[in-house]
Amino acid sequence: MDDLSNTSGSSPGSVPSSAPLARIETNQQLTLSGTWTLAYFHAIKKQLSTHDAKHIERLSLEPVTQLDTAAAQLMIEWFGSERMQQQANHLPDQRRQLILSVIEALEVVAEAPETPARTGFQRLGDSLARLGQQVTALFTQQLYLLGFLGVVLAAFGRTFWRPGRWRLTATVAHIHQTGLNAVPIVVLLTFMVGAVVAFLGATVLTTFGATIYTVNLVVFSFLREFGVLLAAIMLAGRTASAFTAQLGAMKSNEEIDALRTQGLDPIELLVLPRVIALWVSLPLLAFIGTLSGMLGGAVVGAVSLDIPFAQFWQIVQRDISVRHLWVGLSKAPLFALVIAIIGCAEGFKVSGSAQSVGERTTSSVVQSIFMVILLDALAALYFMQMGW
Amino acid sequence: MSDTVIHIDNLENRFGTTVVHQGLNLSVMRGEILGVVGGSGTGKSVLLRSIVGLKPIDDGDIHVFGQRLAALDRRQRAAVERRFGVLFQQGALYSSLNLLENVALPLVEHTPLSRPEAEQIARMKLALVGLPAGAAEQMPAALSGGMIKRAALARALALDPDVLFLDEPTAGLDPISAARFDQLLLTLRDALGFSVFLVTHDLDTLYSVCDRVAVLARKQVLVADTLENVAATQDDWIQDYFHGPRGRAAYASMKENR
Ligand SMILES: Nc1ncnc2c1ncn2[C@@H]1O[C@H](COP(=O)(O)OP(=O)(O)OP(=O)(O)O)[C@@H](O)[C@H]1O
Ligand SMILES: [Mg+2]
Known about the structure:
The complex is a heterodimer of chains A (388) and B (258).
Chain A: E1 21-24, E2 29-36, H1 41-49, E3 58-60, E4 64-67, H2 69-79, H3 81-88, H4 93-111, H5 120-160, H6 168-178, H7 183-206, H8 214-252, H9 255-261, H10 266-304, H11 309-319, H12 323-329, H13 332-349, H14 354-386
Parallel strand pairs in A: 2-3, 2-4
Antiparallel strand pairs in A: 1-2
Chain B: E1 4-15, E2 18-29, E3 33-37, H1 44-51, E4 59-64, E5 67-68, H2 74-82, E6 84-87, H3 99-110, H4 115-128, H5 145-156, E7 163-167, H6 175-192, E8 195-199, H7 203-209, E9 212-217, E10 220-225, H8 227-231, H9 236-243, H10 245-257
Parallel strand pairs in B: 3-8, 3-9, 6-7, 7-8
Antiparallel strand pairs in B: 1-2, 1-4, 4-5, 9-10
Helix pairs in contact in B: 3-4, 3-5, 4-5, 6-7, 7-10, 9-10
The complex binds adenosine-5'-triphosphate (ATP) and magnesium ion (MG).
Residues 44-45, 89, 167 of chain B line the site of magnesium ion (MG).
């Protein structure tokens, strides 16, 4: 072992080290000494910059106690790789090899095409191009979702007639996770929103002496909109993200490819159980949410608006037809489909890295909440026009 | 100062009730390339992780550069860890950074270098491990397994470490690249004098670069000696390993090359 170079210099305190030095000797010979390592990077740069490489003919590297690749790089860039190569020939074997390897590496680096700086005009063009790319991406995304929906429905159609291929265990497990486990949070959320709506209604309606209509406000809004909407938003945040992360992790781990190569259909195995689970869960959660929201309103009514429970219940039975409940719940399967499809489709779009899983998860939550609200608004318009 | 950079004494490692190591002793000398072999699941990666401090050990002692690892405070420990370069079995490149940034990160964080200076060095390191110049701007997800290994080596070399830990560096490389990798390792080791803890299943690597070989089996290091002595050890596994068909072929080609 060459004991001159037996420790690198990035380890302060391990071996005696001294500052790098470059000194002119006679006959245009530059003698280098000291520790030429990464730890002294700036000192080395400074030492070299005090000399003009053009006037130096020979380098004497023998007094250098330690030399590492970073310092060799500086030396080569300063002295030029051809001349450095000649110098290296006089060196002991190991050091010559180091310098030659670095020279070789730097030649590869130099081959890289320089990317010319963009002018202001080009940059404007770049940002326009990016905008265009985003718009087309939005369009292709919708196409992709529709395509995915088609694939899922086809798989559903294929398996529907063959109960032997139903994935009951997986489906029930997903119903447990996405439905049952979400009950507490949905109940809590809708209860609080119900209370808030009641307070809001009371504040406005008292001025007309119509406090009692708070009941109608709360019950109407929950039957038709809030019950299903809040449950759907909750699931979009809670379940769409989970689906994307689960499938995305499988995708980046090549598990989905493994399924395919074994002749198994990932859509049938992984996506269908999730879609069906959500289809079952969301209407149930929406119903529970509706009840809980009405309860929130009723509690506020009883506690601070002088509307006892009995009266609340009586008004509900007298004034409000059950049709509104059906109008509300009819949206649930649609929302469930949208959330599940977006969650799974985004999971399948994951490519490679863990970062991609994160990006897709965010995108799936944003998209599914957006789609749920958009569809809800369209449905509200439709129902209003139909007079339902 | 002694010539042992790493000294492991009576090491024990457990996961729950599974004992991976028990009474394991091993030393790594300054400037040597120590090959660590053993069947799958014998705990080579776990041993590596214990030395670099990623897995707390259950019993025994590990001395690194003459200091007892368990006795170091956080700052001393960080100083020790900076002298390690680790190439993980799966590469473990930072997936949100491109290759250049991956290699430049330790330089920027641990040295007074500016980012352009660090990137300049990082480019050289990437080329040094045999990656084409265009690879610097690529993301790890876009690379093949062999390229990931190389980039990870470049990152491990970023700070010119004193000890390099390599977990199966040539697995997944084509034979030509693997041979070049071996050569590169020798060149760098000879030039920089670092020690190498090399976990490998590659017999060619073992024959062409290792100064000593440690055999891990039955929760211990059976032998740690020169290749000739290890191959001559009377143990069924070792005999199978070195004198099986692959072992003989690699041995023959080594003889030819010398
Ligand atoms: N985080 C962990 N939890 C539980 N057991 C573990 C863990 N990591 C490793 N093990 C166990 O420790 C043992 C040694 O694993 P290790 O990864 O070190 O094997 P190896 O020798 O590197 O094998 P290979 O050659 O396949 O990489 C194995 O039996 C493994 O199951
Ligand atoms: Mg391993």
